[in-house]
Amino acid sequence: MTRRSTRSRGTADGPPAIAAALRHLLSPGVDLGLADARLRVWMPGCGGGVAVYGLAMQLAELLGHPTDLVERLRIFATDPLEANLVRCRRATYPAAEAAALPAEGRRRYGSEEEQQLVIGDPLRRCVVFARHALAEDPSFPDLDLIVCRHHLDGLADPLRERLLDQFRFSLQRGGVLVLAAGERLGEPPRGFDAVAGSAQTYRVVTHAKGRRPSLTAPAASPAPELAMPSPLGRSSVAPFRGLAALTARPSGSQDASEAAGLQLALLEAVVRLVGPAALVVGQQHELVQVIGDVSPYCRLPEGSATAAADAYLRPDLQPLARSLLLQARARGEGVSGLVGCREECSREALSAEPASPPSPLRLSVQPLPVGERQWLLLSFHPDPGAVPIPVAPPIADGAEVARLEQQLLASQDSLRRSLQQLEQAHEDLQAHAEELQASSEELQTSHEELEAANEQLQAANADLGRLNVHLQGHSGELERLNTDLRGLLHSLNQGMVIVDAELRVVRYSPLAVRLFGLIEADIGRPLLEVPTRLPLPGLREALQAAVAGAERRSLEASGDDVVYLVQVQRHQQGDGRRQGAIVTLSDMSELAALHGAAEASLAEFSGLTDALEAGVWKRDHSLRRLLYASRRLAAITGWAPLELCNHPELLDAAILEADRPRVAAARQVGQGEWSVRYRLRGRDGRQLWVQESARVVGQEGELVVMGTLADVTDLEQLGRSHAELAGRLDALLATPGLAVAFLDQDLQVLAASEGFGALVRRSPRALVGMAYGQLTSAADDQQLRASLAAPSSGAATPPALPAGWSARRPAQLQTHQGPARAVEVQVCPYRRHDGSTGYTLRVEASRQG
Question: Among residues 529, 704, 733, 541, which one has the least CA distance to residue 624?
């Protein structure tokens, strides 16, 4: 069954407790008789009623949604607060609150009205609401289920014990008590057993005498104390009908059928182990079931049995058994009797000794209600210490006895059915009485509400009198406010005209006469009939649109040296009712002059940016909008500035896909500025390198990004060429056996190869910055300098460089911590990037050395 959890009052109780109670009502050991069961339920502390209707929906589903649900289900919902009961009887809940009810129950018993759930009459008629104080008022009798939503663990021990005893008295035997969620009582209360599956669910096991039998458990009088014999050995089960029909309930699956069969086998084994030999007798005294070894007391035929159960007993047991069966059927309680039981005649004939006195045997008959069937259990108890009761010999006329027994059984059944009908009528009358009591309480509540409403009306009348006096006092205040409003209109630096729904002038400020030729006599005159000092096209359409509820419209009236901004907006009260329109007049002459100056400045700025080599752009802080683009961007990208402003995504899409992550990582507005070089494909498909530089600045309280975009394709190519030449030089310097050094014009080492470093026993890095004179003798240094010195001609231009390598000349290179080495050197001059002269020194080992 569908259940919904709850967290507070007003919703259905949590699933564990209710689920455990319903599992108990549906357990195989409890025969509820759902085909015609009538349930009586009590929910103290019903709150707003959602919990009550949720429980009713579940019980209706348990009963199979019968058409006579109001006759089969009665729920008494009580609460000490009348406000809660009024809400319960209204049975209307918002959608969010009604979501706690089962979906199937909402669909079957509810209807949606204005985003609210209304509980229908078929379910509402099953619930009786009444005011009830749990600690003061008496409880409802003959209940099958109590769902208490009051917390008992916070009460004093005597009061809690009294309430639990009250619940136990109200419940039938086998009835179920469900306490509030989170309730912890520790041990089960007196007279209750805990129901597996929930810590808040208990089952009644004992209650006061005089209660009617429960719908959920069979009612039977307590059996007399009997001595249980030891296990009885073989047990015979005759192939009679009875238990098979009782246990053949529909199952949802094969596993359920196997579980039911296993449970039945277990129960039979337990009965055989702990109980005496017995016969189960049906309503017509037919034999239904044999339990244990009954061979000492009766003779069972082969095949199906058709005679009465007592006909299979030994002749000396039949009179007492027949009498006990009739008494138990008539009284509805257990009876027993003693009889002397002799051994078999054949055994006496074989024995030479005198016959032993008869062994006393107690026959016991107990009512055995099984569902709607009223069966009897005839059991045999050997009782050697008892005195047997003489039993008269059986009547010879068996047919007459059988006829009398049939008549007695028929009369008994008729009385039993009459008793059941009277009990049902009593329950119905009691339910109607409770409904009448609840209706009486509702009428009393309505009467009290009417009296309260009458008192409220009288109080409202007195309040209206005081309000009248108050309004009279406010009349003068309103007059003062009106005067203040006139003063405000005169003090405004804007002109204002207020018109009604017919476009007639209601009020106007003095400055309004700058545009409208208004005089005091124009109050009440249509504004469109008042002449204007400047042309104002579109005024009629703007006024009509404002009266109709349109948004504000702006118009412009301009002359030779004056500009007015006219705004027309709707005039409405606080509740939204439209009263006309308001026309405001603002002198925009100074702003217009400033606007012209701003446009001139913008033109000058555009001229400056267009003269730059790089393109200039301006974006908002999100970089999604392009606010300005200089004409130079058209020469770089191929797109016109207006086209780029309208479609700024063109610039981002033109970035090569391989460079986009790097560009996105560089464009961090939070850093304040950035510079990034990337490849861009122009409109004509040409690929070029660009350098983007940007800075975040503040303008008029907002952050904008100003930047440039320069074409650096030539620089990029030059850099690549430089990198390539540097790579070649590095490869040359790393060539094994090549001793080369590069000197500046002062003959200081700029770079040296690995071979040169090996000759002087120094690393190439350590040689950088050393003078040639530190690596050779002073004579060799002076000789090299003399050979490289150009003749002074007095000309301003630098001398021309000698062509090619010089002749070889011997020299002595000083090694690091070693002897000098004889080498031959050659020098080749070259022009450096700054215009100065550099020298390439090539060294080879001396051939003479």
Answer: 704
DSSP 8-state assignment for residue 596: H
β-bridge mates for residue 112, sequence order: 117
User: From CA 162, how far away is CA 158, in angstroms rounded?
Assistant: 6
Q: Can you tell me the distance from the alpha carbon of 804 to that of 823, in angstroms, rounded to the nearest whole number?
A: 20
For residue 399, what are its two tokens? Answer: 């047919």
CA quadruple 762, 763, 766, 768: dihedral sign? positive
What is the pTM (predicted TM-score) of this model? 0.31
Write the pLDDT tens digit of every residue in 581-612.
989 888 877 777 777 777 777 776 777 777 67
Residue scoring higher pLDDT (680 or 372): 680
How crowded is residue 583: how many other Cβ atoms within 10 Å of its Cβ? Answer: 26
Residue 22: CA count within 13 A, CB half-sphere: 19
Please give the structure tokens belonging to residue 370. Answer: 């099984």
Quote the CA–CA distance of 403 and 392 in Å, as a whole number: 19
CA 396 to chain CA centroid, nearest Å: 83
Mean pLDDT value across residues 321-337: 85
Number of H helices, E strands in the chain: 24, 30
Q: H or E element: which one contains 212?
A: none
**Furthest-apart CA atoms within the chain: distance in Å:** 176
Cα distances (Å, whole numbers) of residue 223 to 220, 334, 845: 8, 7, 133
Burial class for 196, CB neighbours closer than 10 Å (0-12, 13-18, 19+): exposed
Q: How many angstroms separate the CA atoms of 86 and 92, rounded?
A: 11
- CA 626/CA 642 separation, integer angstroms: 10
816/222: higher pLDDT:
816
Q: What's the rounded Cα separation, in Å, for the pair 560 and 438?
A: 88
Nearest-angstrom CA–CA distance, 654 and 647 = 12
Spatial contact of 305 and 281, defined as CB atoms under 8 Å apart? no
| Poorest-pLDDT segment among 27-36, 580-589, 651-660, 684-693 | 27-36
688 φ/ψ angles, rounded to the nearest 5 degrees: -140, 160
- How far apart are the C-alpha atoms of 78 and 41, rounded to whole Å? 11
Percentage of the chain exceeding pLDDT 70: 79
Mean pLDDT lowest among 261-275, 349-363, 617-631: 349-363
The phi-psi region of residue 729 (left if phi > 0; otherwise alpha if psi is between -120 and 50; otherwise beta) is alpha
Comparing C-alpha atoms, which of 676, 700, 679 is closest to residue 689?
679
* pLDDT beyond 80 at 795: no
Q: How far apart are CA 58 and CA 491, in angstroms?
A: 73
User: Considering the chain, what is the average pLDDT of its residues?
Assistant: 78
Q: Within a 13 Å sphere around the CA of 133, how many CA atoms are in the beta-carbon half?
A: 3
Question: Residue 662 above 50 pLDDT?
Answer: yes
Reduced to 3 states (helix: H, G, I; strand: E, B; else coil), residue 272 is helix
User: Alpha-carbon distance 511 to 520, whole Å?
Assistant: 13
In 667-752, alpha helices (H): 713-733
Angle at 700 between CA 696 and CA 702, to 5 degrees: 45
Q: Is 767 left (phi over 0), alpha (psi -120 to 50) or beta?
A: alpha
DSSP letter, residue 389: P
Q: What is the pLDDT of residues 768-788, one digit of tens each?
A: 889 888 888 888 888 888 888
Confidence bin at 91 (pLDDT 50/70/90): very high
Question: Residue 797 — pLDDT band, cuts 50, 70, 90?
Answer: very low
Q: Taking Cα atoms as reference points, which of 773, 834, 835, 826 lies closest to residue 801?
A: 835
Q: Taking residues 370-395, what's their average pLDDT?
A: 68
Residue whose token pair is 């606007």 = 595
Report CA 793 to chain centroid distance, whole Å.
97
Q: Rg of the chain's alpha carbons, rounded to an integer? A: 57
HSE-up (13 A, CA, CB side) for residue 476: 4
pLDDT of 223 over the 90 cut: no
